[in-house]
Amino acid sequence: MARNKLADPQLFLNRHFSWLQFNERVLEEARDPKNPLLERVKFLAITASNLDEFVEVRVAGLLQQVEHGIKDPGPDGRTPREVLAKLAVGIHAFVKAQYDCWREDLVPGLVAESVRIVTMRALRPAARAHVENFYAKTVEPLLTPVTIDPAHPFPHVINKAICLAFLLRPKRRTLPPYLGVVTVPRALPRLVQLPSANGTVEYVFLSDVIHAFAERLYHGYEVLSAAAFRVTRNSNLYLEAEESRSIMDSVDAQLHSRRKGEAVRLEIEAGANQEIIDRLVANFRLASWQIFRVDGPPNLSRIAYLYDATSRPDLKFRPFVPRELSLKPGAGALFEMIRRRDVLLHHPYDSYSAVVRFIESAATDPDVLSIKQTLYRTSENSPIVRSLIEAAAKKEVSVVVELKARFDEASNIRWARNLQEAGVQVFHGVVGLKTHCKIALIARREPDGKIRQYAHLGTGNYNPSTARYYTDLSLLTSDARITGAVQNVFSYLTAYSERPQYLPLFVAPLNLGKSCLSLIDRETAHARAGRPAFILAKVNALLDEKIIRALYRASQAGVQIELIVRGACALRPGVRGISSRIRVRSVVGRFLEHSRVFAFGNGGNTETYLGSADWMQRNIYERVEVMFRLKDPALCSQIFSQVISPYLADTEKTRILMPSGDYVQSRKAGHFAASRNGFHFNAQEFLIGLSEAHDRVQACPPLPRFVKLSTPRNCKENPRERRPLSLGAKRSSD
User: Which residue, 569, 629, 578, is CA-closest to 599?
Assistant: First the structure.
């Protein structure tokens, strides 16, 4: 009966609604007057970018399910049609809230700080002359005006490109109005900065500039009306790997089709002429709920340009300098350190330069014989990829490049081809599975002539750019147990060579899901036997049904469960008799929480794990992922004191998931006695202070009482005393 009860759809929150709630939490940061003004603008731009991806992938997927007649309900009991109907209402409400924030909060705030977005009509003569010159020399040569008639069909509108629609009347003929369409060039910034005057920074939207000079484009026509619009298209890729010559060719071909997928959403200025709207709707074959009349710029994601272009440090977060790993000169210095002790890094508080240095050292060190690495997403001018290319001329280099990393496919294809041309052995992993694990393996000849392997295992991508604002964890180790297991994972990726087990690693899709369920069930057994039992997990999303049901059973048995879930969460906490011992919180702040951490009380012998996988079906069963156990007691303790504890104590950027499915700011949720007594704690700011070694860093509250740390079992160190380099420790080359 208990198992049947856990199948109740009421116990599962809908993943799509939960994701929309996450984006609402990001929008709260844009509204928060305690955040610097330009940071708030950036948060609003992030919500728009997030929503774009959600519409072109998730909403598009639901539309396809409805069109194909799929009626199977999800875990929450709703069919795709029911989800889509409710989601449409939610998205419209969210978009309205976005534009309310823009018009009512951010634009007036910017004006008060002498940062203005002006219309063409309001330009001063000098600014008007500047814009006219810019238009004539830079903009107009890139424009292709189209008038729709029998000889000129409606042009293909690129996915998410800003366009202008014009209602045109011929001046010399009495004919019904024509529709004209112009695509705003993507090569130009969406905001044009004007010459400064009296200390004021002014911008004008590029679409407004093109509109102002429309009659230069359409000679012989009277421009009756104009409106900026944008179309979002289905961006899912469909791969038939068995029929394609290679995965790279297949992905490359599908990228072109992404640009011309079926239209999913039309965004258009609220004041647009109804005839323009009707013609666009007819052309794109959209339902009424797919039209979004917006009171502001149709592409809010591009207002991020304001953040980058406006030189006002007083309107941004105070910059901070991450801790650097101090090393002796020479390519072998880092390997010498890792030989003596494991290195654990918490980005961005610890600089990502140590990971880059790991690959660069391997490329230049003459004693390194081979390099193996996975690449899921990386930066545009990646120093890591450059090092791999450089190394290929001197040593064996093998790279597993994931071509189907959503929206990074084109970049990854380019990197893959550059690597191949340089002599790198490039692989694309296991057919049908994305390679999402973040691992690198170096083989080096030591002074004694023996070959030793060094490994990096991380929770985040090999991307130095995003590492500045994503929180992630990195382990650098020469532990033979771990490096040997990493070697076996690469054999699986390049040769489909499966092992019975990969300990001390768990590998998806082979055994990671079963291992997580086993760890949860073990806590359940400990609780039933009266032994210490708790589960702490920090993930980006929690959606897998099996994991959720196992957590429910653990809660029923008496296991205390604390979950830090940044984004979508399908688990409903606080349900009496089911999940009363489960608490779920989301932290949304300056940095994007991206690290995955798991801890299990294990009857008083606590075990701590890190990994690349969230508790989602796609991560557990449809990707190659790696989860690894930390065995050094000092590193385990440091994870608790400087990762888990700060987030559990946060009162400023935490929202608590209530049994109703709503999120409530922690100060209002009644969960923190400290916050009710005037205590305020920001986990990310605390970690920044710790990184900068401030003399006065706010003390972090202790861990919950149910957490009992101990030296992990089977953790005997070898005679060379591998002392771990822990987070926050003083760093030196010795």
Answer: 629
Mean of all residue pLDDT scores within the chain:
88
Neighbours of 144 (CB within 10 A): 10
In CATH, the number for domain 333-495 is 3.30.870.10
Question: Which one from 346, 436, 456, 526 is the annotated catalytic residue?
Answer: 436
**CB of 597 within 8 A of CB of 537?**
yes
The pair of three-digit structure tokens given for residue 371, joined into one six-digit string: 């390099």
- 584 within 8 A of 571, measured Cβ to Cβ: yes
Longest distance between any two alpha carbons in the chain, whole Å? 95
pLDDT mean over 226-255: 62
34's tokens: 């305690």
CA atoms within 13 A on the CB side of 397: 26
Banded pLDDT at 62 (limits 50, 70, 90): very high
DSSP, collapsed to helix, strand or coil, labels residue 390 as: helix
Strand, coil or helix: 613: coil
Fold of domain 2-315: polyphosphate kinase like (3.30.1840)
DSSP string for residues in 506-543: EEETTTHHHHHHHHHHHHHHHHHTT---EEEEEES-B-
- pLDDT exceeding 70 applies to what percent of the chain? 88
Please check whether the domain covering 505-691 is classified as CATH 3.20.20.70: no
Distance CA 136, CA 285 (A): 36
HSE (side-chain half, CA atoms, 13 Å) at 34: 7
Tokens of residue 319, six digits: 């910059």
Nearest to 114 by CA among 189, 40, 202, 190: 202
What is the DSSP code (8-state) at residue 234?
-
Specify the DSSP class assigned to residue 330: S
How do residues 149-192 score in pLDDT, each as one tens digit? 877 788 889 999 999 999 999 987 777 899 999 999 999 999 99
Query: What is the β-pairing status of strands 451-458 and 368-375?
Result: unpaired
Q: What is the DSSP code string of 580-621?
A: TTEEEEEE-SSSEE--EEEEE-GGG--EEEEES--BSHHHHH
Domain coordinates in residue numbering, the chain:
2-315, 333-495, 505-691
Q: Residues near 8 by Cβ (< 8 Å), separated by ≥ 6?
A: none
Q: Specify the DSSP element, H or E, that contains 64.
A: helix 60-67
pLDDT band for position 498 (cuts 50, 70, 90): confident
2-315 and 505-691: identical CATH topology: no
Asked if residue 655 lies in contact with residue 663, where contact means CB atoms within 8 angstroms, the answer is yes
Please tell me the number of Cα atoms within 13 Å of 299 on its side-chain side.
23
- Per-residue pLDDT reduced to its tens digit, 247-295: 445 444 444 444 457 899 999 999 999 999 999 999 999 999 999 999 9
Is 219 a catalytic site residue? Answer: no
Handedness of CA 231, 232, 233, 235 (dihedral sign): positive
Question: In the numeric block, which tokens belong to residue 251?
Answer: 């992905």
Q: How confident is the model over 146-158, as pLDDT tens digits?
A: 999 877 788 889 9
Name the percent of the chain in helix, strand, coil, to the closest 5: 40, 20, 40
